[in-house]
Protein: Ribose-5-phosphate isomerase B
Amino acid sequence: MPSALAQLPVPLDSANGRLCNTFRMRVYLGSDHAGYDLKNHLVQWLKEAGHEPVDCGPLIYDAVDDYPPFCLRAAERTAADPESLGIVIGGSGNGEAIAANKVKGVRAALAWSEQTAALGREHNNANVISIGGRMHTEDEATKFVELFLNTPYSGEPRHTRRIEMLSEYETTGELPPIPAHHPQG
Ligand SMILES: O=C[C@H](O)[C@H](O)[C@H](O)COP(=O)(O)O
Structure:
Protein backbone atom coordinates (compact mmCIF):
# COMPACT_ATOMS: atom_id res chain seq x y z
CA MET A 1 0.00 0.00 0.00
CA PRO A 2 1.28 3.50 -0.79
CA SER A 3 2.21 5.54 2.26
CA ALA A 4 0.41 8.75 3.21
CA LEU A 5 3.30 10.60 1.61
CA ALA A 6 2.83 8.71 -1.63
CA GLN A 7 -0.91 9.31 -1.74
CA LEU A 8 -0.84 13.09 -1.83
CA PRO A 9 -1.83 14.37 -5.27
CA VAL A 10 0.42 17.19 -6.41
CA PRO A 11 0.16 19.65 -9.29
CA LEU A 12 2.85 18.79 -11.83
CA ASP A 13 1.89 21.40 -14.38
CA SER A 14 2.11 24.55 -12.31
CA ALA A 15 2.15 26.70 -15.48
CA ASN A 16 -1.59 26.22 -16.07
CA GLY A 17 -2.60 25.08 -12.60
CA ARG A 18 -3.66 21.65 -13.85
CA LEU A 19 -3.79 19.16 -11.02
CA CYS A 20 -2.33 15.97 -12.39
CA ASN A 21 -3.60 12.64 -11.21
CA THR A 22 -0.37 11.51 -9.65
CA PHE A 23 1.24 10.81 -6.30
CA ARG A 24 3.95 12.59 -4.46
CA MET A 25 7.00 10.44 -4.99
CA ARG A 26 10.36 10.04 -3.35
CA VAL A 27 12.85 10.02 -6.22
CA TYR A 28 16.52 9.02 -5.93
CA LEU A 29 18.82 10.60 -8.51
CA GLY A 30 22.37 9.74 -9.55
CA SER A 31 24.53 10.77 -12.47
CA ASP A 32 28.08 11.45 -13.57
CA HIS A 33 29.66 14.64 -14.93
CA ALA A 34 27.74 14.26 -18.21
CA GLY A 35 24.42 14.13 -16.39
CA TYR A 36 25.32 16.56 -13.62
CA ASP A 37 23.51 19.65 -14.92
CA LEU A 38 20.38 17.74 -15.89
CA LYS A 39 20.34 15.99 -12.50
CA ASN A 40 20.49 19.31 -10.70
CA HIS A 41 17.73 20.69 -12.91
CA LEU A 42 15.55 17.65 -12.21
CA VAL A 43 16.13 17.89 -8.45
CA GLN A 44 14.79 21.43 -8.58
CA TRP A 45 11.93 20.53 -10.94
CA LEU A 46 10.88 17.61 -8.74
CA LYS A 47 10.87 19.84 -5.65
CA GLU A 48 8.73 22.44 -7.40
CA ALA A 49 6.35 19.70 -8.51
CA GLY A 50 5.88 18.62 -4.89
CA HIS A 51 7.97 15.46 -5.04
CA GLU A 52 10.80 14.48 -2.71
CA PRO A 53 14.07 14.25 -4.63
CA VAL A 54 17.07 12.60 -2.95
CA ASP A 55 20.31 13.58 -4.64
CA CYS A 56 22.73 10.64 -4.55
CA GLY A 57 25.43 12.65 -6.29
CA PRO A 58 27.73 13.77 -7.62
CA LEU A 59 27.42 16.89 -5.49
CA ILE A 60 30.24 18.68 -7.32
CA TYR A 61 31.06 18.89 -11.02
CA ASP A 62 34.06 16.67 -11.69
CA ALA A 63 34.77 16.27 -15.41
CA VAL A 64 36.48 12.90 -14.95
CA ASP A 65 34.15 11.21 -12.49
CA ASP A 66 32.49 7.86 -13.17
CA TYR A 67 28.81 6.98 -13.15
CA PRO A 68 28.86 3.69 -11.15
CA PRO A 69 29.40 5.12 -7.65
CA PHE A 70 26.47 7.52 -7.96
CA CYS A 71 24.09 5.50 -10.11
CA LEU A 72 24.54 2.33 -8.07
CA ARG A 73 23.75 4.29 -4.92
CA ALA A 74 20.63 5.81 -6.45
CA ALA A 75 19.56 2.37 -7.69
CA GLU A 76 20.21 0.66 -4.34
CA ARG A 77 18.21 3.26 -2.48
CA THR A 78 15.36 2.94 -4.97
CA ALA A 79 15.31 -0.83 -4.60
CA ALA A 80 15.29 -0.51 -0.81
CA ASP A 81 12.34 1.90 -0.88
CA PRO A 82 9.48 0.18 -2.73
CA GLU A 83 7.34 3.31 -2.97
CA SER A 84 10.07 5.31 -4.67
CA LEU A 85 11.40 5.75 -8.19
CA GLY A 86 14.93 6.42 -9.40
CA ILE A 87 16.55 8.51 -12.11
CA VAL A 88 20.05 7.87 -13.44
CA ILE A 89 21.65 10.19 -15.94
CA GLY A 90 24.84 10.21 -17.97
CA GLY A 91 25.88 11.20 -21.46
CA SER A 92 24.01 8.41 -23.25
CA GLY A 93 22.11 6.81 -20.38
CA ASN A 94 23.51 3.44 -21.45
CA GLY A 95 26.13 2.88 -18.76
CA GLU A 96 23.79 4.31 -16.17
CA ALA A 97 21.02 1.84 -17.11
CA ILE A 98 23.54 -1.01 -17.10
CA ALA A 99 24.73 0.03 -13.64
CA ALA A 100 21.23 0.39 -12.21
CA ASN A 101 20.15 -2.96 -13.61
CA LYS A 102 22.94 -4.68 -11.67
CA VAL A 103 21.04 -3.93 -8.48
CA LYS A 104 18.63 -6.62 -7.34
CA GLY A 105 15.06 -5.42 -7.57
CA VAL A 106 15.79 -2.66 -10.07
CA ARG A 107 14.19 -2.50 -13.49
CA ALA A 108 15.84 0.43 -15.24
CA ALA A 109 14.42 1.64 -18.55
CA LEU A 110 16.49 3.73 -20.94
CA ALA A 111 14.08 6.46 -22.09
CA TRP A 112 14.93 8.06 -25.42
CA SER A 113 11.49 9.35 -26.38
CA GLU A 114 8.23 10.21 -24.68
CA GLN A 115 6.83 6.85 -25.72
CA THR A 116 9.72 4.82 -24.31
CA ALA A 117 9.51 6.79 -21.07
CA ALA A 118 5.81 5.93 -20.68
CA LEU A 119 6.22 2.33 -21.84
CA GLY A 120 8.92 1.79 -19.25
CA ARG A 121 6.20 2.16 -16.65
CA GLU A 122 3.21 0.79 -18.56
CA HIS A 123 4.78 -2.46 -19.80
CA ASN A 124 7.88 -2.96 -17.67
CA ASN A 125 6.89 -1.50 -14.31
CA ALA A 126 10.34 0.09 -14.34
CA ASN A 127 11.34 1.69 -11.06
CA VAL A 128 14.31 3.55 -12.54
CA ILE A 129 14.49 5.71 -15.64
CA SER A 130 17.81 6.25 -17.37
CA ILE A 131 18.36 9.31 -19.52
CA GLY A 132 21.19 10.42 -21.77
CA GLY A 133 21.80 14.01 -20.87
CA ARG A 134 23.77 14.61 -24.07
CA MET A 135 21.00 13.18 -26.23
CA HIS A 136 18.11 15.50 -25.36
CA THR A 137 17.27 19.05 -24.49
CA GLU A 138 16.50 19.83 -20.88
CA ASP A 139 12.81 20.23 -21.74
CA GLU A 140 12.70 16.88 -23.54
CA ALA A 141 14.36 15.07 -20.64
CA THR A 142 12.05 16.75 -18.14
CA LYS A 143 9.05 15.58 -20.14
CA PHE A 144 10.39 12.00 -20.07
CA VAL A 145 10.58 12.19 -16.28
CA GLU A 146 7.11 13.71 -16.01
CA LEU A 147 5.67 10.90 -18.14
CA PHE A 148 7.58 8.28 -16.19
CA LEU A 149 6.21 9.57 -12.90
CA ASN A 150 2.66 9.92 -14.20
CA THR A 151 2.25 6.65 -16.05
CA PRO A 152 0.97 3.70 -14.01
CA TYR A 153 1.95 0.09 -14.60
CA SER A 154 -0.77 -1.51 -16.70
CA GLY A 155 -0.88 -4.68 -14.60
CA GLU A 156 -1.59 -6.69 -17.75
CA PRO A 157 -1.02 -10.40 -17.04
CA ARG A 158 1.37 -10.81 -19.99
CA HIS A 159 3.61 -8.04 -18.69
CA THR A 160 3.44 -9.32 -15.13
CA ARG A 161 4.35 -12.83 -16.35
CA ARG A 162 7.46 -11.47 -18.09
CA ILE A 163 8.52 -9.34 -15.16
CA GLU A 164 8.10 -12.33 -12.83
CA MET A 165 10.34 -14.43 -15.12
CA LEU A 166 13.08 -11.84 -14.74
CA SER A 167 12.63 -11.60 -10.97
CA GLU A 168 12.79 -15.37 -10.70
CA TYR A 169 15.97 -15.48 -12.78
CA GLU A 170 17.45 -12.69 -10.67
CA THR A 171 16.75 -14.68 -7.51
CA THR A 172 17.53 -18.25 -8.58
CA GLY A 173 19.77 -17.93 -11.65
CA GLU A 174 17.55 -20.46 -13.37
CA LEU A 175 16.52 -19.81 -16.94
CA PRO A 176 12.82 -19.64 -17.72
CA PRO A 177 11.74 -22.63 -19.83
CA ILE A 178 11.33 -22.26 -23.58
CA PRO A 179 7.67 -22.85 -24.52
CA ALA A 180 6.99 -26.38 -25.74
CA HIS A 181 5.77 -25.26 -29.17
CA HIS A 182 9.07 -23.49 -29.90
CA PRO A 183 11.85 -25.48 -31.62
CA GLN A 184 14.52 -26.36 -29.05
CA GLY A 185 18.09 -25.46 -29.99
O1 LIG B 1 27.34 5.23 -20.75
C1 LIG B 1 28.04 6.09 -20.19
C2 LIG B 1 27.72 7.52 -20.19
O2 LIG B 1 27.21 7.95 -21.40
C3 LIG B 1 28.84 8.40 -19.72
O3 LIG B 1 28.24 9.57 -19.26
C4 LIG B 1 29.87 8.73 -20.78
O4 LIG B 1 30.51 7.57 -21.23
C5 LIG B 1 30.89 9.75 -20.25
O5 LIG B 1 31.79 10.05 -21.30
P1 LIG B 1 33.05 10.97 -21.07
O6 LIG B 1 33.84 10.37 -19.93
O7 LIG B 1 33.78 10.90 -22.37
O8 LIG B 1 32.56 12.35 -20.72
Strands lie at 26-31, 52-55, 85-90, 108-110, 128-132.
